[in-house]
Specification:
Blueprint (H helix, E strand, L loop, with lengths): L9 E4 L2 H8 L4 E7 L5 H18 L4 E2 L8 E3 L11
Antiparallel strand pairs: 1-2, 2-4, 3-4
């Protein structure tokens, strides 16, 4: 086991379909949860609050019900594709 895992309490991610929506201007949905699968429903809302707070700190417009059943939406995100040449 990775000894550093104890330093993490949760996770956050988006997938390809979420990215496609963001590129089209429809916002970016984020999924989240607890590192411990047995505690996802219990700890999930707290993880969501941490993510929401950090996003708002950087002036992202966030929509979320505060429950683990709903993903967090960054409503207005101007996604840029940059290609290095």
């Amino acid at each position: 086991k990775n000894k550093n895992i104890k330093n993490y309490i949760g996770y956050c991610y988006y997938h390809g379909q979420d990215l496609e929506r963001a590129v089209q201007g429809d916002g970016l949905f984020l999924s989240f949860g607890s590192i411990d699968p047995k505690k996802e429903k219990e700890d999930g809302p707290e993880i969501g609050k941490i993510i929401e707070k950090e996003l708002k700190k950087y002036n992202f417009k966030v929509s979320w019900s505060g429950t683990f059943k709903e993903r967090i939406l960054i409503e207005e995100i101007d996604w840029k594709n940059r290609i290095k040449r």
